[in-house]
Protein 1
Amino acid sequence: MDAQARRAADAAIAARLEAWLSTRPAGERAALGVYWPVRGEPDLRESMAGWHRAGHAIALPRVAADSGALEFGRWTPAATMRPAAFGIALPEPFELLVPTLLIVPCVGFDLRGYRLGYGGGHYDRTLAVRALPAIGVAYDACELARFVAAGHDRPMTAIVTETRTITRQ
């Protein structure tokens, strides 16, 4: 995608995500576990700042050393960011915050709600220990007809793209 198309797609994803979030109970939206974009993932940083201004707590993930699951640290638009593993930026200092809903980037997804990430299984381990609603975020072009989900894979509550919001049946 060229830069202009990507910005338009990111804005459309953000608008669809905001519409979906507005239908959720307030407690579920209280603390949003989001992500800092890398490798061409949809960029939601402007939305994160808006959610923060609207009173939501925003948290960014890092891999917990002991379990490989994710733990989340509070982020604000004024946060100092430092580079960490995999080129992912983290807020400094890292103040632990437990999210009530996750917004998860997808390298690929299917209509059953399963997602592909970069293969580390960190989100799957996180969802295995913490039953949270999880919203996959991807571009339409990342849709796969079907792939074999492993036994540990957790389907997303919904997948949001620039043209659709796909919910599990």
Note: The helical segments are 3-22, 45-53, 122-129.
Protein 2
Amino acid sequence: MSEFFVLKGKIRQMMNDFADDLALGGAQDFHQYKYMTGVIAGLAMAEREILDIEKKNKDED
């Protein structure tokens, strides 16, 4: 199991946890809503970067 696989799994789980919490009304106010959506966006960007690095490494092999 590669480090990328483990990292992607952890990021995806955190994204899902935040999204579930948000969907269930976890944000107490607009500030918390913006924070949670920002975390989700940041995690999505990190996941995309990992996928890009993975693809680049695969293409070089």
Note: The two ends are 18 Å apart (CA to CA).
Protein 3
Amino acid sequence: MKVILTEKITRLGNIGDTVEVKTGYARNFLLPNNKALRWSRENVALFEAQKAELQARHEAAKKSAESKVDAVKNAKMYMIRQAGDTGQLYGSVSSRDIARTLKEIAGVDVSSAQVMLGAPIKSIGAFDTKIALHPDVIVPIKIYVARTNDEIEALVAGKVLTFGTKKVEEEPEAKEETKEETKAETETAETTEEAAPAEEVAE
């Protein structure tokens, strides 16, 4: 579907651009949210009449977004989640979770669509993402996901958490001990066998 953008859309175009988009995207997102007009000669004229107002609105939204940059940068995005011994989460951390946390701890209201996460987070660790407060105001943030506050502190300090290694480290030691015990038993048995004929000769 051909539409006229009434505001700048990241990776799509600027105000006034005529672009081709999927029909579903236009009908479900762009048109109902007043981000675009269906292309027609009448709407082209309508846009030209409203262009100055739309550009002024765009600049006002940009300034509002810029005023929230520090709050987003300073937000401590610590997510406590349950996870298994391998560090895999029981569930995931989604864009919606990040948007909700940002509002709770920083008072910045964003939609999940403004969280440029990509795939949900499914393991413990530190992850980089971005918040698009405005198409021209994109703020990088780091998300810390762990099972406890101690693990969060370790991640913030730059430490790499390891999982499922304790058992693996202990097993070789146990195997070495078993080898030593087997060797000792074998040597004792050999000594006993060698000693027996000597006693018979003595008799």
Note: The chain has six helices and eight strands.
